[in-house]
Specification:
The structure holds 2 protein chains of 2 kinds. Chain A is mainly alpha-helical. Chain A is built from 6 helices and 2 strands. Chain B has 7 helices and no strands. Classes of the chains: A mainly alpha, B mainly alpha.
Chain lengths: ~160, ~180
């Protein structure tokens, strides 16, 4: 996405070779997760709308295969991002409300409610976090727009 | 409100994994795909303006965890002390690999720091995946809310499993193989 010429050709080839490996290891991880923590699927049964997360991940990996073959680097990157976000969101959705499961006794697992700070602090914090995240997202947008496009053959500083 | 903060932290971690995943991928692959010094400089130039900013998402997520879920922060940072120190060293190793290579104009010096960059990036990807594996598998949390895990025990998924077992290593490989 950021390189050109022979380097870009080799990077695309590496991405095409690695995508099937990502699909195989992810499928293996899915089976393994179902074996060691079958309860991770219970939230998907009780709240079927949560299926949107694994579906986004599946669409992401399909997009990786397709756009890598097309040589469309930007869409391949966004597909990879959708795959990662979908997998992480699926994990969070499946575990919820548990945030750290106990392997000794499920009663000792830490949950969202049992570990949260007092409501007053969280209420004030969300105001400051919102202000902060707007500034951060603005900064990151400016940064990525400023350095958009391909890197030259002799980048400054490296 | 706690559910909202759970979503906030999940969002910040997802942003970190996506953005720094780009940098880690460049580190893992650059030795194989960039064969000349000019090509390696191009790879470094591709992540140069972004990598340290991307890394801050992880620190910000940690700070937010401390604010919103202090008990979870205390329990996990205490139990995962050893792997967190290793992740910290790997983050430093990656940064050193990027920033030190152009300080001395000698091929051996550059090759060494290129290797450091690749090693740090590869192990970081594996360890971050293994960390997620630990959260999915579970940790030996007691009634007091604390736990300790050695780096590995028998590599089986038992209640006294270590940080690395077959499942968490598999999750590390998923993380490493996601392009």
């Amino acid at each position: 996405m950021k390189t050109s010429g022979e380097l870009q050709r080799r990077a695309r080839r590496a991405a095409r070779l690695w995508t099937p490996w990502a699909a195989v290891t992810s499928a293996g991880a899915l089976v393994a997760t179902s074996c060691i923590r079958p309860a991770i699927w219970s939230n998907f049964s009780s709240e079927p709308w949560g299926a949107i997360f694994p579906l986004a991940g599946a669409a992401g990996i399909c997009g990786m295969f397709y756009f890598n073959r097309q040589g469309d680097d930007a869409r391949a990157f966004f597909s990879s991002s959708a795959f990662i976000a979908g997998m992480l969101a699926s994990t969070a959705f499946g575990l919820f409300p548990v945030v750290l499961p106990s392997s000794i006794d499920a009663r000792y697992s830490l949950t969202v409610t049992s570990t949260a700070a007092p409501a007053y602090g969280l209420g004030i914090g969300i105001i400051w976090w919102t202000i902060g995240i707007v500034i951060v997202l603005g900064y990151f947008t400016y940064l990525f727009v400023s350095f958009r496009g391909k890197v030259g053959a002799h980048p400054e500083g490296y | 409100m706690p559910v909202l903060w759970f979503c906030v932290i999940a969002f910040m971690l997802a942003i970190y994994v996506i953005l720094d995943g780009f940098d880690l991928g460049a580190g893992v692959l650059h030795i194989a795909i960039a064969r000349t010094d000019d090509e390696r400089r191009q790879v470094l130039g591709a992540i140069g303006p972004f990598w340290d900013g991307n890394e801050v998402w992880l620190l910000a997520a940690g700070g937010t965890l401390y604010f919103a879920f202090p008990l979870l922060y205390a329990s996990s940072f205490s139990g995962f002390y050893l792997p967190l120190m290793m992740v910290l060293w790997l983050l430093m190793l990656r940064g050193l690999g990027i920033e030190m290579r152009h300080h001395v104009d000698h091929p051996m010096w550059r090759t060494f720091w290129d290797g450091t960059f690749a090693l740090g990036s590869t192990l970081l990807a594996v360890f971050l995946g293994a960390a997620l594996g630990n959260v999915v598998r579970g940790v030996p949390l007691g009634a007091d809310g604390y736990f300790f895990e050695p780096l590995w025990t028998s590599f089986t998924v038992e209640p006294d499993a270590g940080i690395l077992d077959w499942f968490t290593v598999l999750m590390g490989l998923v993380s490493l193989s996601t392009p």
